[in-house]
Amino acid sequence: xxxxxxxxENRNRAFPFVKLTTSVAVPAGGPIAIQQLPTSWIxxxxxxxxxxxxxxxxVHKVYLARVYRIGPLIYFEFRSDCPDLAYFPLTFTRSIHxxxxxxxxxxxxxxxxxxxxxxxxxxxxxxxxxLVTGDLTSVADxxxxxxxxxGDVTHAVIEPALIYQLSxxxxxxxxxxxxxxxxxxxxxxxxxxxxxTGEIIVFEKGIQGPIYWKPGFNCSIIQDASxxxxxxxxxxxxxxGELCEEAPLFSGEQPSIGSSNNLLSGGPLCNETLRSVxxxxxxxxxxxxxxxVSITGDPANNRVTVDVSMIGLSTCxxxxxxxxxx
Length: 326
Known about the structure:
By secondary structure, this protein is mainly β.
């Protein structure tokens, strides 16, 4: 639950409603319209739409449809213009004597049209939400016993970010993107594999029933029962641990044609890669031969030979006065 400071700030702003759909020219007292609702009455709200409702956040809205008073009780009725939620209003009840930040959760709607009571217990409601109200003592200044304020979908509209729509997993497809494959340096021929690369590799389609998840190499899976989710992420050493060699991505995966090291990715081995010379790195590293030094390139073998041959230099030899025979 947020700290009271968050609610204190919301007493003076439109949140959780879309700006300019409420708090428009609030009078000092007397009758008000829904768009003139004081900001201090409602300081926070959030809604969840069940997976069976065809709710589109870009088209449909959740809004405060009605506020009415019966005796000391005040009722806040929220609705959506989504046709699938037309018969599922959410009505929260408060006392006009409430001065603190009171929170209430409410569910509306039978989740499924089924003969199975067990299935009903397993599925979420069609529409649910929570409401946090602030100081309601000023309600008596605007609503007499029996009064009602009627709104519509253009006023007191809930911020779309506060509406969460549940999704339903019917079956699972298992696929993977192709591995990262080496690309040739400028001027070199690209490696060629005996099959199409860069494709999405599909392993299984339409998997249903009980499904068990097992983390692979350098992979972790975290289950969160609070929101019924699985978080699959990369983590060094997790799951099956670190892999000491390349694992085939699919059955029959092969190295590139003519590969000298049989790496599936087509890249060089670590000991075949020149990373830097005297701290200077690439991607382009140029060698210049000075006097007495020759440089020979061998592109076929990705090799550069630096030979300190002394050719072209005048060499002075200094002989020691001490001789040694073997």
